[in-house]
Automatic annotation (TrEMBL):
It comes from Streptomyces iconiensis. Keywords: Signal. Residues 1-38 form the signal peptide. This is ABC transporter substrate-binding protein. It comes from the Bacteria. Pfam families: SBP_bac_8 (PF13416).
Amino acid sequence: MLPLQTRREISPRLRHLKRLSAATLSALLGATLLGACADDGGSGSAAGDSGGEGKTTVSVGVFGVFGYKQAGLYDEYERNHPDIRIKENATERNEDYYPALLNHLAAGSGLNDIQAVEVDNVNEMATLQADRLTDLKSAPGVRESDFLDWKWDQAKTKDGKVIGLGTDIGPMGVCYRKDHFKKAGLPTDRDKVGKLWAGDWEKYVETGERFMDKAPKGVSFMDGASGLYNASVSGYERKNYAPGGKLIYKKSQAVEESWDLAMRAVKGKTTARLKQFDTQWDQAYSNGAFATVVCPPWMLGYIKEKSGTKGADKWDVAPAPKPANWGGSFLSVPAKAKNRDEAVKLAAWLTAPEQQEKLFKKQASFPSSTKALESTGVRGARHAYFDNAPIGRIFSDAALEVPKAVLGPKDQIIKQYITDIGILQVEQQGKSPGQGWDAAVKKIDDAVED
C-alpha cells in the first residue's frame, strides 16, 4: 500500500516501496487533501496470542505504513466485532519483509494471519506459493466487480485462484514546476501541459528538449532517465514476460522502446542524472533542480515534504502521456494462518470499497476499488499543495485505462538492474548505451533463469 509514503526497497520500486514512518506520514498528511485528517488507532496483543477475555487476536503483517491503524480502521473493526483484537506487525522495508515471508511460508510457521504482498512480488506468490495461500475469490463479502480488472488479475493463479485482495494502486501522472515552465516559454495550465505530451512518452521527451532550449539556469527537465523508463515500460501489456511465463525482456518492444527513450533523454541532457529516493534526489526538490517527475498519487506527499515551503504554489499535476501503474499491494491469508477464518473476514473488510474510500480520505492511499474510484470523496479530491489540482479525477481516469500487464516472478529484479545498473551507468558514469545494456543483462542473467 502506498499512501503519501514510499515503501521502497533497494531498487526504484523498492525505494518507491519503502514506506515512510508513521510520524513522517502524519506530518505529510496535514492539509494535503481537502477534508483529510488522520486518526490514531489499532490495538491488540502480540501475534498468535489470545486477545484476552476470550478474544481472538488476528495478526496483520505489513511492510512500512499501510495506514489501517492510522486511519482508525482497526479500531472500527474491533468496535463492530467485540470478540476480535487486531495486532499489526510492521517491518520497515519490503526487502527485509518479503524474504522473511517466503521463509515462513516454506516452514509453515511464524506467519501472521494476514500477510501483505507488494505488487512486484505478487506474481511470484501466485506462481510459486499458491498452495500455501488461501483462495480469496469466493470469500464472504468479496466481489470481483468491486476491483479494477487488471488489479484483480494480478493476484490470480493459472487455475483461477485469487491469492490476494487488492489494496492501493499507483496510476501515474506528471508533476511539474509551473515557474520553471513559464521561464522556459512553455504553458503552465495543467490541461495545456497535458496536451504537450498526450498519447506518447516520446512527446514528453520532445517537450524536455524544447524546455532545455530556454531552461532556467541549473534546471533540468526531468529528475532522471530511470523514472522515464519505468513510466514508459509500465504502460505496455507485455514487457518482461509473455503470457505463459516465457522471459522476453531482451526482445520486448516495451523494453526496447522505453530503453531508447531513456537513452535519448540522457543524450539530450534533459535529465538531472539523479537516482530516485537517494539523498541527492531529495535535495534537488528543495533546490528546484528539475521541472518534472513522473508521480503516482503516493508520491505527492513525498514531493510536498521534500520541496517544502519553497515549493509551495509552484507544483502542479498533469495527466501522464499514457495510463500506467506504479505501485500497490495486496492482502493475503496463509493457508496455515492460526486464525484463518477470521483473517479472511478482516482482509475482505479492509479491502472493501467503503474502507478503501475511508483510507483514501484519511491517508491518501489511492483505491483499487472501482466503486471507491467513482465516489465523490475520491473522484472529487483536490490537492492544495499542487495548486488545488483535481487529483481524484486525474488519477481515477488513469486507473480505469491501465492495461492488463503480463507479470512475471522476477519483474522486480529485471527492472532494478535495468534502471540501477544499465541506465545509471550511462547517465552517471558516461558509459555508452550498449555498455549499460550489456551490464544490466549480465546482472539479470546471473539472477534469473529463462
